[in-house]
Amino acid sequence: MPSDRIVIDHDDFDLACEVMQDATNLAVEARSTLPPEAIVEKPDGSVVTAVDVALQVLILSRLEEVFGVVPTIAEEDLHSIGGKPAAEAHCRRLLLDWGFEGGEAGIVRALSSGGLDGPTREVDYTWILDPIDGTQGYVDGDHWCPCLALLKRGEVVFAANGHPTVLGGMLLSGAKGEGSWWFPLAGGEFTRAEVSQQPLAAGETVRVVAPARATAGQVRARTAIGEVTGHPCTLVHSDSQAKYAHVIAGAADIAFSRRGGGPGKYVWDHAGAILLAREAGAWVGDTDGSDIDLSRGRRLDGSRAVICAARGLGPVIARELARRDVAEGFVAARGGA
Questions:
Q1: Domain ranges of the chain
Q2: pLDDT of 241 above 90
């Protein structure tokens, strides 16, 4: 065995949960005093804030204190708010208030450490971090969540997502084979997350997650997809990994993210929720029912969709999205059909 091989004690996962609980609560507090100049538009049209960047620095620094240096794929980097003096100043002020003692060198180190790219199947362990998934929701007062996952040779084995807007404010964490658990962000008792696969009753409404800023076309499409189940459909509006948390919490029945080249198609947008949903008993898969391949690097290049469903609805939604892929010319029909 190589002497530099990374070994992580899974008994320490509770310490990673504490890091994410603290980070989520700090982000909640920071949102109340977020100045407009600390919000930056990215080249792809999405937004990032000084809080995203400061949170990434804090989380990765604290994880390193506990687990040592671990290869990391993270959303933010030195360029996220680089060249925006007001945003950079707000980031430094937050870190000072939070007790970060790494100084400028520590900030650079943390933001430079999350750039791992390429396949992870041969990497012992890899952190996957999105300090604030759903930053637009964070700015707008909608759903958002700090998301952390751990891959072991390309397979997710641990996750901890902070959900301040779900069930009154919860941390959802889980490890492979050990279930998923809710824990109040304000402190309290753990409760097991359990997703029902009991079929919908005749005439019962199916609840499908749609983007918070859904267009009229997206509303029609999501409603039609839900109605394929044979039930009337209502939409639950949410973005980020919070959309999967709605299914896990029993507030929705179906959430999915389809193919595309824009935001939302990165490993940090799905990795944690995939484990958490499966450990809670949800159906999670691609349009052909296969597992989601998280081992290819930063992007989910091997998947056409990420589907999360309760109430036994996963297969019918997968078939419908596969049919739409053919109808929309994304893939050729098989066997000349």
A1: 10-192, 206-336
A2: yes
